[in-house]
Amino acid sequence: DQQVKQNSPSLSVQEGRISILNCDYTNSMFDYFLWYKKYPAEGPTFLISISSIKDKNEDGRFTVFLNKSAKHLSLHIVPSQPGDSAVYFCAASDPQGQGNLIFGKGTKLSVKP
Amino acid sequence: NAGVTQTPKFRVLKTGQSMTLLCAQDMNHEYMYWYRQDPGMGLRLIHYSVGEGTTAKGEVPDGYNVSRLKKQNFLLGLESAAPSQTSVYFCATSRNRDTEAFFGQGTRLTVV
Questions:
Q1: Chain A residue closest to B108 (CA)?
Q2: B77 CA to chain A: closest CA distance, Å?
Q3: If you compute the radius of gyration of chain B from its CA atoms, what whole number of angstroms results?
Q4: Which end of chain B is more exposed for a tag (fewer CB within 10 A), N or C?
Q5: Do A98 and B4 touch (CB under 8 A)?
């Protein structure tokens, strides 16, 4: 059973508008979450992370929100740019592991000019 | 400063052949990981290492072996390739268990 779920396989947004990518998780022991961006034929690139002691983390145009009671996090991109078009993966650090990550299936974001 | 480098980038194998994928990092990180990504799936952990000379199994270890003889290198071996091992393989490193991982560019492997 999937522990990290990204229920929207794709999202299309107009340039300049906000992109909101969602992620749900099932394991209440998860305490560190990350978002990765992936272009075709490249490896995932780290974008932003959040610890469970926070409910928000911001880095430039990217903000991640964490709602622990709902086991939900979201990535906001404002304003969206065509270069943001990529697959975005939500991941959680395995609390029983050694930094290994449990990934969602990804959401493909398309930002239209 | 190359970061994380995977060799080769592409490979086609026949069923039953063996091969080794090499991951090299110049970031001086202790932790290294091998993941595979299949179409429509997230990345899944195959094996990982928390330091030179150590290895451990991940979520999908069957059919693979690994070695970490040097801190900077993490090798993934397929002893007898099967079509189910057709995938894109990613190596990653991290400084410790509570920091982000850095990924290589991937190896696209096809087993026919």
A1: A41
A2: 20
A3: 13
A4: N
A5: no
pLDDT tens-digit series, residues B64-102: 999 999 999 999 999 999 999 999 999 999 998 888 999
Up-side HSE of residue B85: CA atoms within 13 Å toward CB? Answer: 27
Return the DSSP state at B88. E
Any chain A CB within 8 A of the CB of B45?
yes
- The torsion angle over the Cα atoms of residues A11, B10, B92 and A54, rounded to 10 degrees, is 0
Which pLDDT does position B97 carry in this prediction?
A: 81
Written in H, E and C, the secondary structure of A27-84 is CCCCCEEEEEEECCCCCCEEEEEEECCCCEEEECCEEEEEECCCCEEEEEECCCCHHH
Each residue's pLDDT tens digit, B21-67: 999 999 999 999 999 999 888 899 999 999 999 999 999 999 999 99
**Is B77 an interface residue toward A (CB < 8 Å)?**
no
